[in-house]
Amino acid sequence: MTSFFRSVREDVAAVFEADPAARSYPEVLLCYPGLHAVWFHHLSHWLWRHHMRFLARFVSQVARLLTGIEVHPAAELGRRLFIDHGMGTVIGETAVVGNDVTLYQGVTLGGTGKEKGKRHPTIGNNVAVGSGAKILGNITIGDNCRVGAGSVVLRSVPANSTIVGVPGHIVLRDGKRVVITDPKDIRDPLSDVIIKLAGEVQELRQKFQHHSHESLGAEPDRAIDEGTLTPNIAPEELFQDDYQI
Fold first, then answer.
1. CA nearest to 146, candidates 162, 125, 164
2. Which residue did the predictor score with more confidence, 173 or 215?
3. 245 in a domain, yes or no?
4. What is the torsional sign of CA 15, 21, 23, 29?
5. Domain residue limits at 209
6. Which of 56, 68, 151, 181 could form a disulfide with 48, with the two C-beta atoms 3.0–4.6 Å apart?
């Protein structure tokens, strides 16, 4: 019980530190649904670990109804987690969230399929995830990372990085800008398909040109005129009439 109240004090202090709109303790205690969702999770997670699974899920659903934030009871949340606004935030069953993390509204820490075991992301310490960002699959977001609003992150990210875009790609690492010189580094599935098609078209073009040159070598009486094949015909033959009366 002592640890619970210590955690409550830390959570309130984290709100004052992260949100300049926080004005008073009564306001923070009564009007911050992200804080309430974290406290509900303390209870539901305790019930889950003590094998009271149905009751744990029931508590989490009550918290979802009251706060608009869905956190699975089995998820592991670190200390001083701040969920700002929070509406629509989802944290999956096997997700792990480190200490001093900030999540904004609409964030999803979700899975990518029906596989068993660890299928949700692991978020390091001191990470900020912008509004509407989706972090999907069994991947790791390193310490001190920033995920831009609306980003979709499908691959693990090293520490001290800033990720933006769909799919998410690194634009800053250790304070230095990362310049993408190869579009394939973005690893966009649609771009991969387009690149593959472009390669096949280039291969077909080379094969066509090769066969065209072979055909020209077999018929020396034909010449190339501005990219088209024209028979070698004497000028006077052009005025001869095939029909004679």
1. 162
2. 173
3. no
4. negative
5. 189-239
6. 56
Q: How far apart are CA 211 and CA 143, in angstroms?
A: 57
Q: Which residues contact 222 (CB under 8 A, 6 or more apart)?
A: 216, 229, 230, 231, 232
Using CB atoms within 10 Å of the CB of residue 227, give its burial: 0 to 12 exposed, 13 to 18 middle, 19+ buried: exposed
- What b/e string do you get for 94-108 counting C-beta neighbours within 10 Å, with b at 16 or more? bbbbbbbbbbbbbbb
| Residue 71 burial (CB count, 10 A) | 28
User: Could you tell me which of 181, 183, 144 has the C-alpha nearest to residue 167?
Assistant: 183
Tell whether 20 is covered by a domain: yes
Q: Name the DSSP letter for residue 142.
A: P
Q: Is residue 147 located within the same domain as residue 173?
A: yes
| Residue 30 in tokens | 């009564």
> In whole angstroms, what is the distance from residue 7 CA to residue 13 CA?
10
SS3 of residue 209 by DSSP: helix
Q: How many domains does the chain have?
A: 2
Question: Cβ atoms within 10 A of the Cβ of 28, count?
Answer: 18
Look up the pTM and report it: 0.69
CA angle 225, 228, 230 (to 5 degrees): 65
Q: Render pLDDT for 196-231 as a digit per residue (tens, 0 to 9).
A: 888 889 888 888 887 777 766 655 555 445 555 455
